[in-house]
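Sanity check

After download, print the first record. It should look like this:
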Amino acid sequence: MKIKALRAEIAALSEEPGWSNHWNNEGSIPDYSRVRDRLEALLAQGHADAVVDLGAELLNAGVRQVEMSHDEGETAEEIASCLDIVFRALPHSSRSPAEQMRWAVEADLSDDYELCRGAKAFWDKSHPTKAWNALAEHLASRLPQDRSAKNRDDFSDTFRRDRLSNWLILSLERAGRREEIIPLCRQEVERTGSYLRLVEQLKKAKRWEEAEEWIRKGIAATEKCWPGIASQLRTAFIEMRKREQDWTRVAALQADDFFAEPSLQTFQALQKAAQRAGVLPAVRAAVLHYLETGAVPQPTARMVGEETIPPWPLPDGGLKPAIERPPSHPPMTDTLIDIAIAEKRPDEVLRWYDQRKPRPRGWDYGWFAEDRIAEAVMEAYPDRAVAIWKQLAEKQIALTKPKAYEEAAGYLRKVQRVQKQLGKEQDWQSYLASLRRANERKRRLVQILDTLSGRRIVDVM
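Expected structure tokens:
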């Protein structure tokens, strides 16, 4: 009767979706505390089989309920806390080790919401090789019947099939059947595009030439539709070259990445590799010249004004992106500014800041970036930093929103701090007064400005 009543309670609880509204702290989250208590009691009384059976029903109902819910994860947490008990019960059930493992795998495959977090404790235990072998046989028979990933462009389908085959790969490995893993990965790569998994298995087997071959195939196959996978494959290729300590080739590959997408990150990666390869001065001169002028590196030295640009010292990386990137329009000031900030060169920060091209209407470099620029030049050029912060504060004030006024106050405090350090407190007070006069109808803003001036709000009421 206890089991029947608990089954009915699970069915009733899982019927209604959970919901919450964090704006007003209202909501309705299903309370699974009695289910947890009853599952704990059943397990303590030695009814592990019943707990596992109920767990299967709870998982199926819980997945449906979470799909319908609109909350911050509270409903999923309630269900997961119950399933934690189910996974504790699983090793104590009358199921064979292989059946227990099969149950845990099937639970994972049906769970898209991390409800089965408790499975970690189960998998952390040691399981017999024989059971792993039986699990591998079961999953291998199931894989041909799986209908997902018929369309490789459907991410959700490929993800589900990869989860199934990942369990099969793990089972084969633990069963000592490693020779079957690479053929399986090669078979699946055509179905799901899981090139990186195949490459990793080839590297694990030290089959380096095959790994390189599949990296090239994978990049060609995924660069247009799945650029993230292509990027991961490029990274794997670079790691292989690092392993060989072929720093010239590593630098060449990093150069390809830089010219495909100039940024502080790709610049720093290229510099690091070029230093290891012993060609940093020539590479740095060429890439900075490219950012400034758009002129690609040349194999011979050339004069630009009074500056000599050394010949490009790197070979072809061999993995140039097949996709043409939108043309960049020099000077690439955003990247040059980021580099100058990272290298603590305030003169260069201001040089490129002052040369930025006008932005299209409605588009800006970004308030955070402008703030970083002001911080970067504050010590060397405090007046320029103050001017930038004033401009940022005035842009926020123009939005006429209370939250924007708070943002403006943050910039104004920086103006206040610097002008106080410069002994220009009178300039600060005059500027604050002018802002107050220009915005005297914005009551909330005036209160904030009065606070910045040192006047308490009660003094001006």
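If your output differs, re-run the checksum step. Summary of this record's structure: The first helix runs from residue 2 to 13.
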